[in-house]
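Crash report, auto-generated. Payload:
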Amino acid sequence: MATSRPFAYNTGALISGTEQVGDIAVGVSSLDYSGGVGGVRWWNGPDEDSGYIIAKPIPSGIQQNPDGVPAFVGFSRSLEKNEASFLELANNLQAGATGIFTTGDEAKTWLNANGYWTSYGTGPDPDAEAFLLAAGITDPTITDAIENLVVGLKTNNLWTKMKAVYPFVGGTSTTHKWNLKDPRDLDAAYRLVFAGGITHSSTGVTPGGVNGWANTFLNTTALTNNSTHIAYYSRTTTSRQSVEIGVGTDFGATIERMLYHISWSDGNLYSDCYNFGTNRVVAANNNQGSGFYIQSRTSSTSHKVFKNGSQFGATNTATSTSNVNDINAPIALFALWNRIASSGSNLFFYSARACSFVSLGDGLSDAESSTLNTLVNSFQTTLGRAI
Amino acid sequence: MKVALLTPEQKDLLVGQLYTADSYFNPIRDFNENWIISTEEVDYCDNPEFSWVKNLPLIDYQTGN
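Recovered output after restart:
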């Protein structure tokens, strides 16, 4: 059933059971608005499921309507129900009356101050909602967890640092493939493609360790040089020769990689970003391989690893002479994608490490890594799958 | 760990094919150069076109490590 609500043009006092923005009254209570609540004519607004609504006053009363009577409220709707589409609508509406809006909240504030009502910001976060819609998820616990995660990332200025976020909710390959940042079913949206032996469950993704992996289609060239992070929520405590997130190039003068061995067969954690070896972080004795790991490079001389919010191993300060454009290959999950020639590649070191969250994006400071850890652990706790 | 043994011809049939929603077969070579797929692909395969994978012989997975 479509979502809509009643509106009226009201230049008088606030009508009981309604909200008022400028001269627009909005029905919020379960009243019979067809009976002329408050002595004004009520109109049912447009469907709000497919886009964000802006209700605007038409003081001249010339708004077209099926009844052919004077009508004083008009409506616009964004083409899509997301912040970008809402901004396009709001910016077109204000047509240079003020500066260009860059956030939905900024646009909403201006609209309300100028007598327009909007459905933007009245419901779930649009990006959370778009993800849940794409994944076909309606479970209230998952919905709340995703909503809180997205709002938390935005509130803490981490959302824009993310290129891809894979929360692995819903329990199937079909629900796990979606990128929370861009839930379109496209390679360009970094939607995952799974291959090989992988088990999907309510706790996330468990690669089988033989040939299971996922292609993010996120080429390293899409990352910001000397500002990159990769994060992995591991549920598995064993050590083995495997790569949890990996991409590299093994031809030419230098081996360049961006990868995690969370707990190699010797029990150590190895993190490469970007020169293999030279820029490596090693954290010994990580036999307890479960935890939330963040690899972050924030400059050419700072590469760190965080485990459960605290720095793990020493900072690698060796100057990185390579960059993301040198690797120029898509990041793989649960294996290492190794570019072995200008047009060839191969996959190595398939992981068997169960995973409940992955993020890829810009480098994170110590404080930001700690915040991300808090948000992700809260997310897992809400879902009843914190380790 | 067990894996399912493929002939080269069977491998060619599986490349680029889905074994279940949003999950592709990924035949690889083991240490002895056999073409194999995982038991997950066998067990989770619900694509009727490839139900024959459920009858593949199982061998020990050799990685050379």
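Post-recovery validation: Residues 229 and 296 of chain A are 4 Å apart (CA to CA).
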